[in-house]
Write a structure and sequence with these properties.
Largest sheet: 4 strands, mixed
Number of domains: 2
Helix content: under 10%
CATH architecture of the largest domain: 2-Layer Sandwich
Distance between the termini: 85 Å
Length: about 180
Amino acid sequence: MERVPEAEQPAAPNEPPVDVQPERANPPRVDEGAGPEGGVAGGVIGGVVGGVVGGVVGGLGTVLPIPPALPRPPARSAVPVRVSGSIKTPDLLRRVEPVYSAIAAASHISGAVVIEATVDVNGSIESVRVLRGRSPLLDNAATEALKQWQYAPLVLAGVPTPFAVIVTFNFSIPTA
């Protein structure tokens, strides 16, 4: 079997070649007779009437259109958006559990408390409203806990937007 010679590893040169010369910039030709009638004093052949000295020879070829004005950002909604369907609830950053009071436990009060919370553009709980309560003891514990929650802001079309969320707290009598 014939042995194939190994290829040399490519390497960058250590020194620049001696025969490489820097590029020479050709100064644009100035047409001495191309005064203001043919263009700008000191202009170049092939320049554009009304062009700029030192500009691009031949001009840009086309006139650039003026871009349309940027659309105004949508106004912030004062009405909270209900999160459901394609609008997902933003991440919950801080959750505080309600305190099941000793009085509620001794009274054998248990059940679900359903609360609607309005969350502001920063993700803080702005207001709470009990939709279905069980007892003032449980309702107050649930609302006090929920007021301390923190969400990530809801951003719709680039605009921070308040939103409403419904939270259910289930209270059960602790077993000893």
